[in-house]
Write a structure and sequence with these properties.
This protein has 8 helices and 11 strands. With 251 residues, it is an alpha/beta fold. It has 2 domains: 186 residues, Vaccinia Virus protein VP39 (Rossmann fold), CATH 3.40.50.150; 51 residues, N-terminal domain of TfIIb (Single Sheet), CATH 2.20.25. The chain has a 7-stranded mixed sheet, sandwiched between helices. α6 links the parallel β4 and β5. It is globular. One of its GO terms (biological process) is methylation. InterPro entries: Methyltransf_25, Methyltransf_Superfamily, SAM-dependent_MTases_sf. This is Methyltransferase domain-containing protein.
Length: 251
């Protein structure tokens, strides 16, 4: 069931030039690189191993992972984001990129040593479709390979909730947010308005599923993962209402 999450048309409009202008500031690249390397370590991917970054967005994680020696493949549905990822990769042999919906990955079974799903990149399509995503990732992992999924979880979001907020996004842009949350359905609706330095505004509204840790563990197990553990950080910190969620699932 979708539980009121947005359609693919809404997400395609969001993960576009709008998303790039909002999030592609290089001011946050150093933190993203550190998180990506920590996630790869948590996944147990061997040095020089085959690593899947899905979805990879504009390459903030997969490009530094490739520079660190991993043979990274980045997958994303958005052509606009992949174009920026290729620009950042600057023609290097790795990472490779593939444009695809992550419910139907264009790879054979057991193609990767590990997989990463970072920066709250699940919950867009509802429980059933998200389960398909996890099952596809498990399919392309080699036996014993791990998925590291880093996301917001419901208890943390409730603790830190505010109806409105704003952030400076680099190059003089401001991102305004108006939010509502249905705790029974576990669905958050967000309207983001990007204010350019010249004062022009553009808005996108979307709804996403925010899972409790127990719900996400159940989804991963239903997708066929043999072992699922949750942490509150990349260094095995305990999960709590004050942390984000690191789910580590072994195929």
């Amino acid at each position: 069931m979708s539980r009121g999450t947005s359609t693919t048309d809404v997400w395609d409009a969001f993960f576009s030039d709008f998303y790039l202008r909002a999030y592609a500031s290089e001011e946050r690249d150093a933190a993203a690189e550190a998180q990506a390397l920590a996630a790869a370590r948590l996944s147990g991917c061997p040095e020089g191993g085959e690593l899947l970054d899905v979805p990879c967005g504009f390459g903030r994680h997969c490009v530094p992972l490739a520079r660190a020696g991993y043979r990274v493949t980045g997958v994303d549905r958005s052509g606009a984001l992949l174009d920026e990822a290729r620009r950042r990769a600057a023609g290097e042999r790795w990472p490779k990129f593939s444009q695809a919906d992550y419910r139907e990955l264009p790879f054979g079974d057991a193609s990767f040593d590990a997989a990463l799903n970072l920066f709250t990149s699940l919950g867009y399509l509802g429980d059933e479709e998200d389960a398909k995503v996890l099952a596809e990732i498990r399919r392309v992992l080699r036996p014993g390979g791990k998925l590291v999924l880093e996301t917001m979880h419901r208890d943390h979001m409730v603790r830190t909730w505010s109806d409105n907020g704003w952030r400076l996004m680099g190059e003089g842009r401001v991102l305004l947010e108006q939010r509502t949350f249905d705790p029974a359905e576990g669905v958050a609706q967000t309207t983001q308005t990007l204010v350019e330095p010249d004062g022009t505004r553009e808005s996108r509204t979307w709804s996403a599923r925010v899972y409790a840790a127990t719900e996400l563990v159940a989804l991963a197990r239903a997708a066929g993962f043999a072992e699922v553990k949750c942490w509150g950080g990349f260094e095995y910190e305990p999960l709590s209402v004050g942390t984000r969620l690191m789910l580590v699932a072994r195929s």
